[in-house]
Amino acid sequence: MREFTLAKLLTITGLSLFLLSSCIPQEQVGYVHVSPDKLTKGPVVWNGSVAVTSSESWHMTPIGNTDWCTVYPDKGVEGTTTVAIQIEALPHVSPRIAIYEIKTTSGLKRTLTIEQKDVEGDEYYFYFQDDPALSFSVSSFDVKPIRLSVLTNVDDWTASVSSDAGDWLIVEQTEDSLLISVTDIDEPKGREGMVTAVAGGSLNKILTFSQKGLHEYGAPTRNFSLSMPNVPDSELFFKDVYSKSRITLLFIWGSWCPGCTNFIPLVKQLHEEFKSHGLKIYGVALEEEGKEQDFLDSLNDNGLLDVDETTSDDIWWKNRPVFSPLEERKINYFTKMFYGDKLLTGEVKNFLPAFFFVDAGGFIIRTYTEPYPLNTQERIESLYNDLRLFLSRQLECCGG
């Protein structure tokens, strides 16, 4: 009887426990894991992956700004999925964080956090061999390409040109070098631009470039040569004049230009006063093709062909013409050497008369190219006084 009662008690207890357990909700057996669920990387480009393991389908949603990260795929099914991650180079030194939420169809959630820090970049390096100056002042033309050797352990770096210099600075990069080409300047004023080499964070390098305009102090001039029409052995190189003087005045004029011919007597005065102190003049006349005789007549009428009766030497400076069709008399190969394309665009209004002073190396030291309405004696004398004052100070003579 006692054994029967005990067996009955055990049966009732077991049944009660069964009924009780059937009333308690069962624990969810679904799951989703991300491994690793946090990445902390340096400032350089990085490619890697994480694994998403889930018991059901899932999708990934970015939280906040994640433009600098690329994840693929951003969805998956039951099992383990490898998600490829690409991180762009850090454009500055401030850290940034990207967060992604991984959510399953039943609502299970996990997060993936990606942090990028400049301080994590101690293991990386990026610099130019021999540590060159990062600022370049280049010539107005004929600049040899600048090649910089790059020393780095960063797999991916890029170089770009600032928007204001995209038409004259050209960059080419290889795995271990950066080549910068500079086009000839085509305007009186100088220009500046930047080339930025980006490896990430503080590993970025900025190169600045400045190029002198055709009229700026220190700008070089081209060594042109011109000849007299139908006169053998009359070719005259600009360098043969300026290299034998302290200062040379390149006087650009035209026989058809009243302001030019009005000013020739004043150029003679400058020549007379300063030639013994190191001044030479090279005259270039811009003339219409087919009017060679008009040019020669103008030289004769202005006494520019006079010679010393004793020595037979020229009294005045040498002049040479540039003959062009009428429509090219203002804009031609010669004027482009000194104005670029700005006469064509109208950004420079005046081109005659023009006065370019260069030193013994052919470098610009002063230009007078403003619009000069030399139609009154007062205006003529005002320009003359400016030129005379400049020469007297430069040559340290004649009351300067």
Descriptive notes:
By secondary structure, the protein is α+β, with helices and mostly antiparallel strands. It has 3 domains: 32-120, Immunoglobulin-like, CATH 2.60.40.10; 126-211, Immunoglobulin-like, CATH 2.60.40; 225-394, Glutaredoxin (3-Layer(aba) Sandwich). Helix content is 21%, strand content 34%. The chain is built from 7 helices and 24 strands. It has helices at residues 2-23, 238-242, 258-274, 292-301, 333-339, 342-345, 377-394; strands at residues 32-35, 38-41, 46-54, 58-63, 69-72, 75-76, 79-87, 96-104, 109-116, 126-128, 135-138, 146-152, 158-161, 169-173, 177-182, 191-198, 205-211, 225-226, 236-237, 247-253, 279-288, 318-324, 354-358, 364-368. The strands form 6 sheets. A 5-stranded mixed β-sheet has the order 2-9-8-4-6, with no helix packed on it. Strands 22-21-20-23-24 form a 5-stranded mixed β-sheet. Helix 3 packs parallel to helix 7. The longest helix is centred in the N-terminal third of the chain and has 22 residues, at 2-23. Mean pLDDT is 89; it is low at 17-26.
Briefly summarize what is shown:
The protein has 400 residues and is of the alpha+beta class. The protein has helices at residues 2-23, 238-242, 258-274, 292-301, 333-339, 342-345, 377-394; strands spanning 32-35, 38-41, 46-54, 58-63, 69-72, 75-76, 79-87, 96-104, 109-116, 126-128, 135-138, 146-152, 158-161, 169-173, 177-182, 191-198, 205-211, 225-226, 236-237, 247-253, 279-288, 318-324, 354-358, 364-368. The longest helix has 22 residues, at 2-23.
